[in-house]
Design goal:
The protein is mostly helical. It has 4 helices and no strands. It has helices at about 1-25, 55-90, 95-140, 145-155. Helix 1 (about 1-25) runs parallel beside helix 3 and helix 2 runs antiparallel to helix 3.
């Protein structure tokens, strides 16, 4: 019975991540043809521009943080369990309980902190993707729209 509930929760988690990453994977069907003709603007702070990561990168980094948190948590829990087992074998139940508590507490902290960071990054990337998709659907903010408006007034 436990296996079915674990499997169901894993399926829900995978479906949720897939659903949240779909907007990040959206891209225009036809790319602009004059991409290389744009001249880069010089940055005011010595030529170094801060490049904003794309929505796909944000979602990827968020997933990476969640994975790191799970790994750190498993490591902490393993260390605590190993210490507790060693103390139980040497007949030190008080120390065993303390080690097990430290391991579980460290695992909870690592998983909680990094999962929170990862979820925030995934949310930020998803928001960017939805914003870009909305602009494309409505037709605002595109480079081609400005050119089209000029050509309509010249005719």
């Amino acid at each position: 019975m436990k296996i079915k509930s674990k499997f169901a929760s894993m399926v829900v988690a995978v479906c949720t991540l897939l659903f949240l990453s779909l907007p990040a994977l959206a891209h225009p069907a036809n790319s602009p043809q004059n991409q290389g003709s744009a001249t880069p603007q010089s940055a005011p702070n010595g030529g170094k521009q801060k490049v904003e990561p794309g929505p796909g990168n944000e979602v990827g980094k968020g997933s990476e943080d969640i994975g790191k948190g799970a790994g750190k948590g498993a490591e902490s829990l393993g260390k605590g369990s190993a210490g507790a087992a060693g103390n139980l074998a040497t007949l030190h139940p008080g120390k065993a309980g303390a080690d097990l508590g430290k391991g579980a507490g460290g695992a909870g902290k690592d998983i909680g902190v990094d999962t929170g960071k990862g979820a925030a990054k995934i949310g930020k990337g998803t928001g960017k993707g939805i914003g870009r998709l909305g602009k494309k659907l409505v037709g605002k903010g595109g480079k081609n729209n400005k050119n089209n408006d000029k050509s309509d007034t010249e005719k």
